[in-house]
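Quick check before the chapter quiz. The format below is the same one you will see on the exam, so make sure you can read both the input and the output lines.
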Amino acid sequence: MRQWLEDIEARHGLDKLTLKSRQLVLVSGAILLVLVIYRGFLVQGDEFNWRPVVAFVLPLVLFLPSIIGRRARGHAWLAFVSLLYFTQGVMLASVPGQSVRGISEAIVSLALFAGCMGYARFRSRQLRQK
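Here is the expected output.
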């Protein structure tokens, strides 16, 4: 696996791979945030309660400074947090009538995981070269 990643880095260059993985993080993070907000509003009953929305959104929002600051370590931690959303998506997919939302959340969270791990690797290697 390590040799395969090093071959990809040599073939495409760290700058391009860092940019592509950052784009994947931004797009998948935004989509996951929209899905989570939507799910938070669906949990609501007759009266609006902001607590479920905040509970679903807060873990993602806490990593915004790391994403904006382009910190590799913050991206690595966000990758681990995204696995919680993957687990939630898989559990939601098993609920009758919620399979599409669950599967979409699981796929988007896996994309966020891959983007974050790629960015953490490529950015840290890029900084070491400079």
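If your answer matched, good. Helices lie at 2-12, 14-42, 51-61, 64-68, 72-93, 99-129.
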